Amino acid sequence: MIRKVLGKIIKSPWNAQYTKSVQNSYSNATVTGSSIEGKNVCISGATGDIGTALVRRFLIEKCHVILIGRSEEKLKKLCDQYNVKMDYMVMDLSIPAEIEKVYSDYVKKNRIDILINNAGVWGGAREKKFRNVPVVNLINTLNTNLKSAELLSKLLLEAYKREKNEISIINISSICSQFNSFGYSPYGISKAGLLGLTKDLNVKYGRYGATIRAILPGSVATKMGNIKVGDNIEGNNNILNRPALAEEIAALTAVYASDIGKYCVNNLTASAGEKI
Ligand SMILES: NC(=O)c1ccc[n+]([C@@H]2O[C@H](COP(=O)([O-])OP(=O)(O)OC[C@H]3O[C@@H](n4cnc5c(N)ncnc54)[C@H](OP(=O)(O)O)[C@@H]3O)[C@@H](O)[C@H]2O)c1
Fold first, then answer.
1. Residue nearest (by alpha carbon) to ligand 1 atom 36
2. Which residues touch 264 (CB under 8 Å, ≥6 apart)?
3. What is the set of domains in the chain, with CATH numbers?
4. Which residue's C-alpha comes closest to atom 11 of ligand 1?
5. Does the CA dihedral 70-102-196-210 come out positive or negative?
6. Which of 34-38, 143-147, 257-261 bottoms out in mean pLDDT, i.e. has the lowest?
């Protein structure tokens, strides 16, 4: 009842229609006061919906963007959309040995200032009941969502720790880390694990100047939530009565990566007010 009333009062300025012009209106000015201009930003899951919004955001912030994806074709297509030079690395993040091989070599030869662990899979657990999730799903989800973030972060932090450079890492967790998402879910477990990783890395590498943060989006208007550009996105279990936009998550990520977000080292919920 309350939600229905709130939904009527808090109307979106764009009639809840998620369009290209809405996307553009969220992505045309710096949100960091240009304070991260020139930084090298590495984004995993760059070809996904939040990933492409992150790429757009960090290009607006005049950063050098380095993409991580598993499909070279998709990565090339993404690079072709912009008139700037971007590096990319092709790797399957569910395979730790592949990360070690491709990424550790890159990190040894090139500098990364900001790492965004954004890649993730839902893992198909919504349809499964407790204890019916196949082990292979569990392992694949944990490897893709958690182990990859651990490895990408560790290799970067170890490579730079002697220099005491201010490396910033942002882990895209989920509100599913906070409650038992859809019964039993490797997804929720992996996202809760990301919070543990965030805290531990801060303890271990904070003294070398690194800052590791996590963002916990609620539903975001992306294909993971079965939403595409052009859809009406009104209706959600939060106070806005709509999911967050990928562009909003991307802007928040940039703020956390900048000096403005320096003291935000604990976990924050991007899309607040979800019904838990
Ligand atoms: N959408 C939401 O409602 C929501 C809410 C909370 C948190 N999140 C989190 O936000 C992040 C981005 O989600 P999204 O909505 O943008 O989903 P998405 O569009 O499905 O993007 C996921 C990205 O991860 C990449 N990826 C998946 N498995 C991979 C693997 N084995 N190796 C390399 N890359 C792999 C995908 O690559 P391909 O392009 O090749 O498929 C894609 O680029 C995820 O971590 C997700 O858990 C999303």
1. 45
2. 213, 256
3. 32-218+244-261 (3.40.50.720)
4. 118
5. negative
6. 257-261
